[in-house]
Design a protein that fits this description.
Elements (H helix, E strand, L loop, with lengths): L4 H10 L4 E5 L6 H12 L2 H7 L8 E4 L1 H4 L2 E4 L9 E4 L3 H9 L3 H11 L4 E5 L5 E7 L5 E2 L6 H23 L17 E5 L7 H17 L5 E6 L2 H11 L13 E8 L5 E5 L7 H14 L6 H17 L13 H12 L1 H4 L8 H18 L10
Parallel strand pairs: 1-9, 1-10, 2-8, 8-9
Antiparallel strand pairs: 3-4, 4-6, 5-6, 6-7, 10-11
Helix pairs in contact: 1-2, 5-7, 6-7, 8-9, 10-11, 11-12, 11-14
Length: 380
């Protein structure tokens, strides 16, 4: 039976676990879950009452709303002085001004992106410009970085806050802490940090996050949601390993997959027994769509994703080589048409009946019968 996001947020709040790791496809509702959790733990009226003091904050979160604190001034008139503006709040002020974490933010950002790409904060710490060294070491100032680099930079600001808070709260006696701003903090909710990184840096980031969370000795609890299977699996394995340095045990964590049901409710599924197999989850979603006769354009994206991973594993140069030879070219054209971004998400999701039959055939006869994939949902 499905649950509302508020009910799931309540379960997250009531859990005694130090770490709760959740996988969900994009669009399922991870960001809305983080907002529901925040409203449950720290309603807005309580935050307003606590603004006059340094304590009272119960939850800090990183999600799409965090990124909204940062926005571009592109200097449309001069087209030269581009900068990323920061909407100041109590915690960016604390990280940047009080704790002086700018050097650590720059170091982390360059580590995960490019050591020639340098952020430069202004004196008020409410603007950031970026420069890069070219091939001849000539510096180019005031460049506009990519969306992925911007997301990584914002994460590095939050990550520096996360590291500082863990360090502060690891001091057991409140009177001995460098600040009492976080004495009432109970939760960190992290929703999809930097999914635009390449695989190597994404693995590094996951390992670093897991190490930091394991090192936390306070009452802090951590909730991490992601749509990235690699990030999820690295964290899954990290939290599944005991660490005697921090008295950490796998029993301190729980791992789940969040699914959205047809009636608009949600179902958290326990995945503590094994890491998440992304291609099998995609196949399960395809099976569900076939059974319910609710095939959408994006399901062709799922099909292509499985074919690409299978071709790589089996050593084929092209995923099209997995398709039946007699109609291979036609199948490839159809999959390419529907899995292309402008057709899969931005236009109508209606799929013709013939194309539904093609997808059903390829799933049943190619993936299931020929390549022996096993899926959680059986075909009718």
């Amino acid at each position: 039976m499905g649950k509302t996001l508020t009910e799931i947020a309540q379960e997250l709040k009531n859990s005694p676990k130090k770490v709760q790791l959740i996988y969900a496809f994009n669009g399922v509702g991870k960001t809305r879950l983080s907002r529901a959790f925040k409203e449950l733990v720290s309603p807005k009226h309580e935050e307003e009452e606590a603004q006059d003091g340094d304590t009272g904050v119960k939850v800090l979160y990183y999600n799409a709303f965090t990124e909204d604190l940062f926005y571009w001034d592109n200097d449309l008139d001069g087209d030269t002085n581009r900068k990323l503006l920061i909407r100041p709040n109590a915690f960016t002020e604390w990280v940047l001004k009080v704790e002086g974490q700018t050097n650590n933010i720059i170091t982390d950002f360059q580590h995960y992106t490019n050591d020639k790409l340098t952020p430069c904060f202004n004196e008020g710490y409410n603007e950031v410009s970026f420069s890069i060294k070219g091939g001849n070491e000539e510096r180019i100032d005031n460049i506009k970085i990519s969306r992925g680099e911007e997301s990584c930079f914002i994460w590095c600001v939050f990550y520096s806050l996360l590291k500082e808070v863990v360090e502060v709260l690891n001091v057991p006696e409140p009177e001995n802490r460098s600040t009492n701003k976080f004495d009432d903090l109970e939760y960190f909710f992290i929703d999809d940090p930097v999914s635009s990184l390449d695989d190597n840096h994404l693995i590094e980031l996951a390992v670093d996050v897991a190490e930091l969370i394991k090192s936390s000795q306070s009452k802090l609890k951590f909730i991490i949601t992601t749509h990235n299977p690699l990030f999820y699996n690295v964290l899954f394995n990290a939290f599944n390993n005991a660490d005697s340095r921090y008295s950490y045990s796998p029993r301190h964590s729980v791992k789940k997959r969040l699914e959205k049901l047809d009636d608009g409710t949600f179902l958290p599924i326990d995945t503590n027994d094994s890491p998440f197999s992304y291609h099998l989850a995609l196949l399960t979603e395809l099976n569900k769509a076939i059974i319910s006769d609710d095939i959408q354009k994006y399901h062709y994206n799922f099909l292509r994703n499985i074919l690409e991973k299978t071709a790589t594993f089996l050593g084929y140069k092209n995923w099209g080589e997995l398709l039946p030879a007699e109609s291979r070219e036609a199948y490839c054209r159809r999959i390419n048409l529907y899995s292309h971004s402008k057709h899969s998400g931005e236009e109508s999701s209606i799929v013709k009946e013939e194309d539904k039959r093609v997808l059903t055939y390829l799933v049943k006869e190619v993936l299931i019968s020929q390549y022996q994939f096993h899926s959680i949902v059986d075909h009718k």
